[in-house]
Amino acid sequence: MRSFIMRWPELGLGVRCKGLDINQAAFDIFVENMPTKALQGHEMVGGWLLRDHSILFNRKPFDIPKVELSTENMDQAPVGRISFLRPQGRGAELLAKYDESVDTREYIPVAQVVPEDLEILKKAGREQWKATTRTREIIFVEFVKEDA
Amino acid sequence: MEAWRVLKEEIEAQIALTSNQPDQDILDVFKYSISKLGAGIPHDDQIFSTWFYGAPDVTYAADWIYFLIELARSGESYSMPALHKMAKYWFVHPSHFGEYCGLFQQYSFTKRIDRMLDTLDRDSFIELLTVFRSYIMNINAWIYQYWPWGVSYAVPRKDRAYYEKGLELLSQ
Amino acid sequence: MDEPRFIIRWPELNKQVRVGPIDRNRKLFDWFMENLPARCIQTTTVVAGLSVNMQFIRMNKTVCDWIQEDMELEYIHEWPCGRGFMFMTAGNVAHLCFKVDWVTEPLAYPTFCEVIEEDKPILKEVGWFFWERLLMEKETYHVEFIREEDT
Amino acid sequence: MAENWKMLQQEIDAASERAVEECPDDMLRVFEYDIVRTGAGTGRLMMGPWWEGATSTRYLGSYYIFNIVKVAQDMNISAEQIRQLVNLMLPTALGTVELCDISDYARFTRQTIDCINEEIDDREDMLSLLNSLWFYGSAANAWCQYRMKWGIGLSFKVNHRDDLIYMGSRANEAFERWDHEKKEEN
Known about the structure:
By secondary structure, chain A is of the alpha+beta class. In chain A, about 20% of the residues lie in helices and about 45% in strands. Chain A has one domain: Cyclophilin, CATH 2.40.100. Chain A has helices at about 25-30, 120-135; strands spanning about 5-10, 15-20, 35-40, 40, 45-55, 70-75, 80-90, 90-100, 105-115, 140-145. Chain A is globular. The model of chain A has no long low-confidence stretch (mean pLDDT about 95). Chain C contains two helices and eleven strands, in the order ββαββββββββαβ. In chain C, strands 3-11-1-2-10-7-8-5-4 form a nine-stranded antiparallel β-sheet. A two-stranded antiparallel ribbon of chain C has the order 6-9. Chain C starts with 5 loop residues before the first strand and ends with a strand. Chains in contact: A-B, A-D, B-C, B-D, C-D. At the B-D interface, helix 3, helix 4 and helix 5 of B face helix 3 and helix 4 of D.
C-alpha cells in the first residue's frame, strides 16, 4: 500500500500516511500531485482537526465524479484520518483529525496516519491551534511521496 | 492567445504567489485593518464588520464556483447561456461587495470573467472557473490565518453548570 | 390627485414617517403597496454606511415577478438620505433598506421610494437609535408598513 | 396520506410568524448565551459557531434558496432541475448550520430536501415550499445579524493614513518578532 509523508518544516514534525481500501483513485491522484505544499490552518467549528483550506492539484486534475467517492461523517472517523472536502479540478480542502471531533458533516476519507505517528500528529495539531488562535505564526504543510 | 487563456495565466501567477504568502489585499484588509473604499468607517470606524461580511464572499465564492462547475459537467442539462446567467447570479453579483471590502485582485478577475462569460464554451468555462476557484481557495486560507479567532478566548461556549452558578450568584 | 404613499411605523418608539414613490421603478412601489400591510423586525446595516434594514417582509398577495438586475439602478453612495431600495427580493419575500446617513458603499440598487423631506429627521433619529441598540441592548424592535389611505 | 410537505410548510410558516415577533431560540442560544448543544466551537471558542454559523445561515437562504427561486422565475427551469440544484447546493451550508446548533432552520431545510426528493413532483409545489423556507431563512439571517456581538468590533479600529504613517515612522523602535518568523513574510 503506497504512502506519503505529511510534514511541517517550521515545526520539525512529520507523519506517515497510508491509503485506505476505499477512495484509492482519489489517493492516487493526490500522490500523483506531490510534492505539494499548503498553508496549514485549523478547523474552528468541528473540533480538533488540522484544516488546509487550499490543497492544489497542479499536475493531475481531480476528475473523479462526486457520486463515485465514499464519504463518512468526521465524528465517526478514527483519529489520524485524512479527508478531502469538495475535491474538484485543481483543488480541494484537506482535513486531518488529530483528536476528538463533533463534526457531523460529510468528508471524503483518503488516507490514515500510521498508528505510531498519531502522537506526532497531535503535537502538530496543538502547535497549529496555538498559531491559529494566538500567535498567528505562519506554518506550512508539505506532502511528499514516500517511495517504498 | 484567447482572452480567457491570458486571464487564466494571470490567475495562475496569483495562485503561485498566494501559495507561499498572503497577497496585498489580504495584508491590507485582514492583517493591517486598512479600509480602502470606506467599508466600516461610517459604523464607528471599525473593520470587524468588514471582515465578518467581506470574507465569506471569498469562502462561499469557492463553493458557488464548485457548484457551477458541477452543473457545467453534468452534460447538457444546463445550456451555456443558462450557465452564464447563473454565474452572474451566484458569484459575479455578490462579488461587488468583495471589492468594496478591499479584495481588489479577486474582483478584478471577477469583472474580467464576467465580461468574457458569453464567449466561453463549456470547456473554457470549466477550465477558467476551475483555476479561479483555486485562487479563491488560496485567498480564503489566508483569511482564516488572520481572522481574530482569539477574541473568543474571552467568550467561550457555556454549559448548564455555568448558568446555574450564575443564578446562584445572582440570588445572593 | 396626490401620489399614493405608505407609512413606516416603529410601534415600540411611537415614531413614523411617510414614504412616496420617486421617478423610477414605479412597478416596485406598486407591488409593495399591493402587498401591505406588512411587518418585520428592524435591524441596520453594519458595513456600508447606515441604512435601516428590513430583511424579511412577507408579500402575501402577489409574488415578485421582476429581477433586481433588470430594474433601473442607482449608486447608493450618491442618492439622498431617506431613499429606499429593494435588496435580495424574490418570491413572496421582500428585503427593503432605507439610506439613513453617510454611506461609502459604491454599489447600485433598484431605488423605488423616498421618505418625504419633512419626515427625514425622524428617519435619521431612529436609524442611529437602532445602530446603538444593535451594539449591546438588542431589544426587539418592529417595523410596520401601512398604506397611508388605510390609516 | 396527508401530504407531509404541506404540514411541513405550515410548521415553517408558523415559525416564520413567530420570528417576525421575537428572536428564535436558535439565535438566542448561539449569539446571546454562547450555548452550542452539539459541542461545536473548537476549543470552546465561540467565534467559529458565530461566524460560520451566521454565514452558513445567510448563504443557505440568501444565495442558494434565493437564487434557486430567482432562476426558477427568470429562466423557467424544470422541476427536475430545481431538485438537482437543491441536492447540489443546500447540503453544504446545511451541514454547518446544523453543526452550529441553528437547529430549527437545519431541520426545516433537511425536511424540505426530503420532501422535494420523495414527495413533490409538481414544480409550483416545490417553489411554494422553497418560498416558505426562504422566508424563514431570511428571518434567521436577520436575527443572526441582529444578535451577533458587534460590540467586539469597536476594539478593531480601522487604520487610517495618519495611523500608518506614524507606525511606519516608529518601526525601528519596535521590539523584533520571534526569530522563527523572520522568513519571507513581506
